[in-house]
Design a protein that fits this description.
The complex is a heterodimer of chains A (127) and B (208). Chain A has 3 helices and no strands. Chain A has 127 residues and is mainly α. The relative contact order of chain A is 0.06. Chain B is of the alpha/beta class and 208 residues long. In chain B, the strands form 2 sheets. In chain B, strands 1-2-3 form a 3-stranded parallel sheet. In chain B, helix 2 packs antiparallel against helix 6. The radius of gyration of chain B is 19 Å and the shape is globular. Chain B starts with 6 loop residues before the first helix and ends in a 17-residue tail after the last strand. Classes of the chains: A mainly alpha (127), B alpha/beta (208). Chains A and B meet through loops of A and helix 4 of B.
């Protein structure tokens, strides 16, 4: 009698559960029997290379790099879509052609905007 | 567990292929052969510590090659170098943040006493003023062999720690503290200048 082929998955899940649970249970037992836990304000403090941590971790970052994100979209992501578009150009229906045209126009608008911002100049950007 | 097994019986059993041990021996054997140091260097001693970890001296032979960048995962703090008074609070805080059991090796003349800067104004005269030190290594800087020797001494110390009874290891005692007060910057010096519960300098006996 051949066992159910899904039986191996059940065994695998069982082993995958028991394997980490045994050390965790042993550690829990060890704590109960031998080693008393010693938490404290310093020990539980946030690790910050030895200095006291300042402020909150959940802060908002200024989007300083949005220009790079836009240019990345224009010159990298757009190129990825352009290559299959060019290959399948002859067989495309009108709807798909218009859709990719809208996509291109949106990014070209971004390119014009970035150009007018002076992002394509070498050297420092003057706002 | 306090009752030691007869050594003759043990060797006789071992010859028959029966290996007898106790939880304490197994625990200490596992701990002493896998001591993870905190990746932490202060001055020129740290260069010797790096050499000890590199291939020529190879601290991996003793199970201590896993230098951890976080105190949560470290067992051993090697205070390698000059402890300035500006750095001392950070060291004590890092020691506090290490999980028990934790050990300290004071490496080099500066870490054990202030060394050549002992008379200076800005160097701590030994890290043992704030945290308990297990092994001291003299030298300026100590050679990698000296650090390896200290490591082996620490392994010997771990091997002798008791799991239960009156003389059990300090990290197993519920009353023994796991963290020590962090000194603050005072007007002229660190405050307090030493932790009296930790710092017990040897009494000097002068013959009159």
């Amino acid at each position: 009698m051949t066992p159910n082929p899904y039986l191996f998955i059940v065994i695998f899940i069982g082993v995958a559960l028991v394997f980490p649970l045994i050390p965790l249970a042993l550690a829990w037992l060890w704590r109960r029997v031998f080693q008393p836990p010693k938490p404290g304000p310093e020990k539980n403090a946030i690790y910050e290379c030895g200095v006291e941590s300042l402020g909150e971790a959940q802060i908002q970052f200024r989007s300083q790099y949005y220009l790079y994100a836009i240019i990345f979209l224009i010159f990298d992501v757009e190129a990825i879509f352009l290559v299959p578009f060019a290959v399948a150009f002859v067989g495309l229906p009108v709807g798909a052609f218009i859709a990719i045209l809208v996509f291109l126009l949106l990014l070209i608008e971004g390119l014009v905007w970035a150009w007018s911002k002076g992002c394509l100049q070498w050297g420092t950007i003057e706002h | 567990m306090n009752e030691e097994i007869d050594e003759g019986l043990r060797s006789q059993l071992q010859r028959q292929g029966v290996w007898v041990t106790s939880i304490q021996e197994l625990y200490n054997w596992g701990r002493k052969n896998s001591i993870w140091p905190l990746q932490f260097g202060l001055a020129c001693c740290a260069i010797e510590m790096i050499a000890t970890a590199a291939s020529r001296y190879d601290i991996a032979r003793f199970g201590g090659e896993v230098f951890r960048p976080s105190p949560r995962q470290a067992d051993l703090m090697i205070v390698a170098g000059t402890v300035t008074k500006k750095m001392a609070p950070q060291i004590v805080r890092l020691y506090n943040q290490m999980a028990d059991p934790k050990y300290v090796i004071a490496m080099g003349a500066c870490a054990i006493s202030g060394g050549p800067f002992k008379q200076g104004y800005n160097v701590l005269k030994g890290i043992d003023r704030y945290i308990p030190v297990d092994v001291y290594i003299p030298g300026c800087p100590p050679r990698p062999e000296a650090l390896l020797h200290a490591f082996m001494e620490l392994q010997r110390k771990i091997d002798e720690q008791k799991l239960s009874g009156a003389h059990k290891a300090t990290h197993l005692e519920a009353e023994q503290p796991s963290e020590f007060p962090v000194p603050a910057f005072g007007k002229h010096d660190l405050e307090p200048p030493a932790n009296p519960n930790v710092f017990r300098p040897p009494a000097i006996e002068r013959q009159s």
